[in-house]
Each structure stands twice: as structure tokens, then as C-alpha cells.
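Async update (no meeting this week)

Hi team, since we skipped the sync, here's where things stand on the single-chain job. The sequence we agreed to prioritize is pasted below, unchanged from the tracker. I ran it this morning and attached the output directly underneath so nobody has to dig for it. Comments welcome in thread, and please keep replies under the output.
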Amino acid sequence: MADLTVRIDYHSPARNLALAALNLSFPLWGLVMPVAGIVFLIQSMHWLLYPTQALNTEGRAIAIALACLFFSLGCLTLRWRLGRNSLLVDNNGIQIPILPENMTAASGFIPWSSITKIGIYPAGESDWQKRSLVLFREGKKSPCRMNLNRLKPEQLEQLLLSLDAWGGELEKEDSVGDMQQQMRALTATTQIEMSYTDMWEEELRRRFLSTAFLPIEPGSILRDGTLKIMRQLAMGGLSAVYLAQLDNKDLVVVKEAVIPDDAVESIKKKAQEMFEREAQFLMKLDHPGIVRVLDYFADSGRHYLMLEHINGQDTRQLVKQNGAQKESTVVTWALEIAATLKYLHEQDPPIVHRDLTPDNLVLREDGSIMVIDFGAANEFIGTATGTLVGKQAYIAPEQLRGKAVTQSDLYSLGCTLYYYLTGKEPEALSTSDPRTEKPDTSAELAELVITLTQMETEDRYQSAKQLIPVLKMLAAAQAALR
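Output:
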């Protein structure tokens, strides 16, 4: 499960002025740096070659050269730091850029564990744009301050929502909740088809709202004392996903599956046997495009898969934040996903993912695509509860009838490519043509999506192996056009 990172632009006139001054003076400090380096090298060589000569002149030249060099490096570093004007918030903490209002408080990354209290000041000010969000930190005399007039209402609401989601256990003054309600009322007057705040709230609902069962509390110890639950990453229905620490050092992801108490005993037993059998099989998989299953275990009547922790962003959020993707990008991703499906489908017996959607495809930091969250736990819950595994808009007709086959994953892949190309959800149980939303989609790529999403399995590509050469030809054709 990939961690979500929220980026919020924070505009500071003072920082922008300093950045403009550095940019205008670049010819001075940008040229001084290489010249100083050359002078330093020449004088140092001369000093080494002629050590018996008077060194006063060379010493002064070297000192001047070093001063110029360090000045230029300082300007370059400051230019880089000032260019980072975004607040970055994730489940580990918040990254603060250099801000004039924090001259006595260091900027940089602030982990949640170091924050003791959050408040909004001054308390009696009615105009929210004249107030500041203040983070008090353990062991720091000066708190970190963010002027709210640097943020748009939807950005402020987004920040407050993320603080509420990831910093839920932190002490917050009543002013924080009051400000969140004020921003919600203010942004509600803006009529936007899908505002960023709506998107973020949807993501919070998907990842953080309570489920139909009682989730594990952070700090709980599982797996004979070797696994400590750190926080929840996602939850829904009768399952949850947690970030955990293994043996007090490595981060892992734990996926929990719960069978309802009212489930038929024979179904419970069958589901448990299937969970164990498939978990053992998944642990043997070794492919760069698949999250590794490290272990499975049971604890207090609940069953768990332990998976490696992946840094990256799921592709649904990527598209929501950045819009429909370029065809060249989509084809590159499709090739990687198809290669992963080929590996899964060629196992003995074949592994059908059953839930191949943008949510379960993560773009890693190195730009590669990884398939996550598949297999035993989903099927385990589905068998025990009689519920369908998979998201409605991406489910093939035969999977809806309870007969998922390898071509079902290809149908889901076609729906996923449609989403990447258009930024819109595909219509459930239908053939998808991206040209209905994006008329300029190339005929070849549109035809590929149409073929993948045919209603009958025999009308689709029959295997990922058959699909890969078609994608390679599309990639080559697009490369030739560039």
C-alpha cells in the first residue's frame, strides 16, 4: 500500500522577493563559483610546485578564492531551498519550506511524534486571513508558524483535513476544529465539478473512515511480539491495512481479514484453507512488478498477510491530481502491467488478480509501476461473506457471475487504461472507448482498449503474452513521432 503525500503551495511574498534577487544576481555568483574554483586549483598547484617561494601572495589568493567559492555555493543552496515553496504532508509528518515568519524556528521535516500541540492564533481574530496555524514542538522554544493568508480556502481546508487524518492523536485546540468548519462552509459556496477538497475528502473516506469491524489500535503487538502496528493506511468492509514495524526496525504492510461471526462454519473453514494455500503460493512469487508477500499468520481469530512496504503513489490519486495522462505514458505503464500479469497468469495454477484497478497500481519513486493488494485476503473475505471481490466499474461480466479467469484481469486492465487516458471512471459492464471522452485519442490505442473491454472473453486478447507485442508496436510508433 503506497503512502499518500499531499502537496500544498504556500506563497510568501518575502521569499519570492529573495528568490527574485538571487535569480537576478545569478551572473555574479554563478560565474564567481567556477572562476574561484579555477583560481584555487592554480594557486594550490603553484604552492605545491614551488614550496620554497614566499607564500603570502598565494595564501591570500587561496583565501579569497575559497571565500568566493563558499559564497557561491551558499547562494546556490539558498536558491534551491527557496525554490521549494510547498508544504508536504504525509503519514510521517509535515515538510515546511523556508518561511520569513519562522526565522527563529527551523524549517524542514517535522515528524508527528515531535509535535505537542496545534493551535490557531490570535484566538480573538474574526478574519481568518489574519490568523496563523502554529505547531508547538517538543524541545523547541520557538513554534513553527504558518500565516493563513498565504493559503486559499480550499488549500487550508485540505491542510486541516490532513492534520486531522494523520495527526489525529495530537492535542488540537478548539480553534483548529472551528477553522475547519469555517473553511468547509466557505468552500461549499464554490461550485466546482470536482474540487480538490472533494477529492481529498473522498481519499480520506477511502483510507481513514471507520469500518464495519473494530480495527487494531496503533501500538498493538502481533505475531508473537515481533510486529508492532504503527498506524492504519486503509480500511473498508471487513478488512484493513496497517503500517507496521517488524522486529523494531523494518517497515512492512499488514493486511487484515476478518470472517463475520455469523458466517457458516463450513464456509469459514473453506475460506481459511484457501487463505493459507494461496498465501503460501504468493510468498513464492518473485517479480519486480509485484509487491512481495513476506508472511501470513493468524492472531486472535483474525488472519493477516504481511507485505513489503512500497514508497510511491497509487495511480488513481496521481490522475486525480494531474489529470488524464499522455498516451506515451499510458502505453509505458500498460507494458509494465501486462508483463506483471503475464507472470501471474503463467503460474501453475494461474493467479488471477481480481482487483486490478488504478487504486492497486502504484507508481514507485523510480517511475516503475507495481501491482499491490491482490490474492488471498480479498478472496478469503469474498468466499466467507458471499461478497464480490473487485470494484464495480472494473469488473468483467464473467467475474460478476463468480467465474473470474485470466481474461478478467485483461478486462480490468482495459478499464484502467481508459481511466488513465480520460481521467473518468469507465461505465460498469460495458465496452469502453476513450474517444467518447477524449476524441484525439489515437485510433490504435482506442482500439486496444475497446478490444480489452469486450463483454465476452473470446472477443478480448486471450493472454497478456498476446497483448505485449501490440503494446510494444504502439510504443515504437509513438517514439517515432517524437
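Quick observations from my side:
The mean pLDDT is 78.
The chain has four domains: 9-82, 86-206, 221-308, 314-375+383-481.
Reply here if anything looks off.
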